[in-house]
Queue: 4 jobs
Job 1
Amino acid sequence: MPCSRLMPVCFVACAALSACAATLAQSPTTGPQQSAQQQPAPQQQGDQTAPLVDQQAQKYPTAAELSARETVASALLRNFGFEEYQFRSAAEAMPADKYGYRPAQGNYGGVYPGYGPTELRTFGEQVKHVACANFGFSAELDGKTPPPNCDTGGPSPAKTRDELIVYLHDSFKALKKSLGAITKENIFQPIEGPYAGPNTRLGIATVCIWHVADHYGQLVLYMRLNGIVPPASRPNPPELKD
């Protein structure tokens, strides 16, 4: 059929479809699906999840608050306190039967004199070394004679887990007292001694902090290799046993 004859038919069909659409739009809907569509949409409930709270922000002062009352001693003790918790909590969490644990056996040799034994320390030897070093740094800061041979254990007779934990506790107590005596007037005074000397009072203080951090990193490996999560890495770190 020629296209010219199709055009009237198309116009009639379009008119009919338009009329049907208009009739359906005006007629009430009665089908079950149509009834469901007419129901008002339920209101969406808001997110009931409690907002996250920054526990660290609540626990610690802001930088502005610190700046308002900061001293040389408070700055040093704040950072040293973090390291004290990490190290002491690890020592307290390790079972007594693991204090003799050594990650690998063997004499590695080639160790610079004064830098420790030629084989890896046991867990207990790590604890004893840090405790002895803390007493050594404290003595140097106080102008006293430090204990000898801290690199190989030092003079303390502490040996069992309980004895070493007490020895460690006392060493942190002594060193915190010495660090607390550092002021802006004496911060650059010269310090002599076998442990990190010759140095200044500030220089020794920085060594005190990184030395504990250094050996804490080693304790973490000892604990992880024994399937123990260090307390400082747990969701709810326990308090120290003071």
Note: The CA atoms of residues 138 and 144 lie 8 Å apart.
Job 2
Amino acid sequence: MIGLAYSLLWEGLLSGALKGTQLFSVREYIRGMASVLAPRDTITSVVGGQGFVFAVVAIVIVTALASWRLARYEIRAAE
């Protein structure tokens, strides 16, 4: 439900209407990655190639967090 609200409100309405909110838009980071891979002057993005950097940082953080949580997880024996 939260993801749907985010997608509709932030990505759909606010990032299209207010230019400053595009820096916090997932869609803009995806457009930045596409603009690096696409031929010149076909796709423009506010973020540019920084989308790749943020994607790598997010993957590292999520992997570290998941590893830490799995290391703390205990399986109890059935009694």
Note: The helical segments are 2-17, 26-37, 50-72.
Job 3
Amino acid sequence: MKVFLDYTKDLHFKASARNFKDFNIDEPTSFHGTDLGPSAVEYLLIGIGGCLGTTFIYCLQKNNIKLEAFEVVVDGTLLHTGPKMFLRLVNVDVDLKFTPEEASSDEDINRCMKEFTEYCIVTNSIANDKLRINVNCIKR
């Protein structure tokens, strides 16, 4: 899995993943950016919500549970922490709000609610601290 980021100016990048081209990554003006797109932290929160949402929906679909409505709300908390007071994402709250069709099985819904989080690649990679990040600086 590989993504590409091309620097444009200030703190703004254009990113590509698979066949999706030129989506913006930037910081808000309060963080010295130009606010041309979501920040990297916002994309992380989108990834968390997207992974949990799709994992939950997949479980419901496998059990033939149809929904009338579904919404994911992700709320991340940034705080200055540690001896150097670096800004860090310290907490993430995720609400999956859904309305099943009336004929849906409560037993199957409850099983999905209990089990789906163990299948989310994103949250299990970052929350369990098992993701190694290797950094290479390559001068061209």
Note: The chain has a mean pLDDT of 89.
Job 4
Amino acid sequence: MAKMTLELAEEYLRAAKEKAKEMKVDMFIAVVDEMGKLVAFARMGETSIGFGEKIAMAKAKTAVAYKRDTKDTMDRYANYPGNYFITGMAGLYPNEFWAGPGGVPIILNGQLLGGLGVSGSTPENDHKCATESIAHLQRK
């Protein structure tokens, strides 16, 4: 049974950093294990968004909890009246839940190993960086 190791987490961190550099954006990048515990983290350049590190970690944790990317979670619940689900979950799990683009589960051979979360640019760029860096590694 595969597990999220520091070495594997660093591979995902590296892939996300390479994608962010290709996109010419600086990101906060977090990798968590299947329990949502932080394994690796990076802050690129002079990224200065005040909550970026917490947002990246929360995106990774949310991707693990729902076993889907956080954009899908956002899209799924965005039409609920008053966004009560998103608001409620964020209130129940501060620093743990983020239903916005940029979080992706890490699944290998059908097994959930952890999650990758990126923050620091636009929602579209965060989503692109996370999903394309995961896809790149899974093609290897």
Note: The mean pLDDT is 90.
